[in-house]
């Protein structure tokens, strides 16, 4: 892998921070993923996001079964340790994961507590093509008026996410990545309303 650990990962980190501070803003990391030359069962943007955010101090969980090679690669590159869903600091959702699997994980993952809200999970989720023409309306800190968003998350999954974030500062933070190497963030502070759902 010809990833520049300083240049590429710092650029990706800045893009993630930008997207996290401006929920619904889609950022491209296409130039950075051009350095990725491993054939792994995940999007290049997913791998780069994991390499950027994970280190020896955190744990991660991959929902998909039989992903030993990917788990090993992420552990090798980041020194992060694999952990069960209810202990993981980061949760990685691959495009093959079913809605039922994701729903169950949303119910089981860490979301912090009032004393230590930071003891929660950040999700890196593979999505269909991200777009600002979508069924979601985002409001909250960092969003000027409102923002529209389309991801591969279903209505039921967004409702499950909203359930886990209704008692701020408890909650989870989401980072979506697509095949076009775009990323978008929906932190716990963001209110997500679905078209046609009150």
Topology:
Elements: H1 7-21, E1 27-28, H2 30-33, H3 44-53, E2 59-62, H4 68-78, E3 81-82, E4 90-93, H5 99-108, E5 122-127, E6 131-139, E7 147-150, H6 155-164, E8 173-178, E9 182-186, E10 191-194
Parallel strand pairs: 2-3, 2-4, 4-5, 5-8
Antiparallel strand pairs: 1-9, 6-7, 6-10, 8-9
Main sheet strand line-up: 1-9-8-5-4-2-3
Instruction: Give the helix level as a range of percent.
Output: 25-40%
Number of helices: 6
SSE string: HEHHEHEEHEEEHEEE
CATH topology (level 3) name: Rossmann fold
- From the helix content, strand content and strand pairing, which structural class follows? alpha/beta
Mean pLDDT: 94
Q: Mind telling me the CATH class?
A: Alpha Beta
Features:
about 200 residues, alpha/beta, Rossmann fold, seven-stranded mixed sheet, three-stranded antiparallel sheet, 6 helices, 10 strands, globular
Structure description:
The protein is 30% helix and 23% strand. The chain is of the alpha/beta class and 198 residues long. The chain has a single domain, classed as 3-Layer(aba) Sandwich (Rossmann fold), CATH 3.40.50.11310. It has a seven-stranded mixed sheet with strand order 1-9-8-5-4-2-3. It has a three-stranded antiparallel sheet with strand order 7-6-10, covered by helices on one side. Helix 1 crosses helix 3 and helix 5 runs parallel beside helix 6. The longest helix is centred in the first third of the chain and has 15 residues, at 7-21.
Briefly summarize what is shown:
This protein has 198 residues and is of the alpha/beta class. It has helices at residues 7-21, 30-33, 44-53, 68-78, 99-108, 155-164, and strands spanning 27-28, 59-62, 81-82, 90-93, 122-127, 131-139, 147-150, 173-178, 182-186, 191-194.
């Amino acid at each position: 892998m010809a990833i520049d650990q300083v240049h590429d990962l710092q650029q990706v980190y800045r893009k993630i921070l930008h997207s996290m501070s401006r929920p619904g803003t889609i950022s491209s990391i296409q130039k950075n993923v051009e350095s990725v030359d491993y054939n792994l069962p995940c999007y290049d943007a997913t791998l780069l996001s994991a390499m950027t955010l994970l280190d020896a101090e955190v744990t991660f969980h991959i929902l998909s079964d039989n992903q030993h090679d990917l788990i090993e690669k992420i552990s090798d590159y980041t020194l992060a340790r694999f952990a069960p869903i209810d202990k993981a600091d980061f949760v990685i959702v691959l495009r093959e994961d079913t809605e039922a699997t994701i729903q169950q994980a949303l119910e089981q993952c860490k979301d912090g507590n009032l004393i230590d809200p930071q003891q929660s999970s950040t999700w890196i989720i593979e999505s269909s093509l991200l777009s600002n023409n979508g069924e979601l309306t985002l409001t909250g800190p960092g969003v000027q008026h409102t923002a529209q968003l389309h991801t591969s998350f279903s209505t039921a999954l967004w409702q499950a996410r909203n359930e886990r974030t209704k008692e701020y500062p408890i909650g989870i933070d989401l980072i979506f990545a697509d095949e076009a190497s775009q990323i978008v963030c929906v932190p716990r502070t963001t209110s997500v309303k679905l078209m046609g759902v009150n």
